[in-house]
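Supplementary Text 2. Reproducibility record for the structural model of the 181-residue chain.

All settings were left at their defaults, and a single model was retained for analysis rather than an ensemble. We include the record here because the model underlies the residue-level annotations in Supplementary Table 4.
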Amino acid sequence: MKDNKKITEKQTSWKKEILSWILILAVALGLGLFVNKVLIVNAKIPSESMETTVMTGDRLVALRTAYWFDEPKRGDIVVFRYPDDETELYIKRIIGVPGDTVEGKDGIVYVNGEALDEPYVSDPIEEDFGPFDVPEDSYFMMGDNRNNSWDSRYWDNTFVKREKILGKAFVRYWPSFKKFD
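Retained model, structure tokens:
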């Protein structure tokens, strides 16, 4: 009788152990999905369009929470759904906010008639563009590597709608650590 009881206890103990591991894994998976879908965007830089700020192959985290209580601002680096194919994520800098007029002349980007101070850009633009009038609830995006960036200047759907901005770049974590302002 005692041997049967010990066998039953071992079987029950083994089943409890398996169930506890399944529960731990389910909670970890649920927490990971929550963080990735609600709090952050994990992105890999696919091209040279944002060099030298971030390089091709860099990995960064963007905060989905950044715009819960605040609006995107000119100069923010953001992850968003590409307006011409929303299955693709793009990473660019906001140049024009709702109501702005953006244009490029003689190597300089102008917003509302004033030259934009852009210490993050290494080369002036080679082609004039615009003017573009940024509509309500929309943003004009450009890459920091202006002459090698597929951005608002060239898209069929020129502007990024506010609800398509997924998050503000917060930190690059690979290949080295760099926090964004």
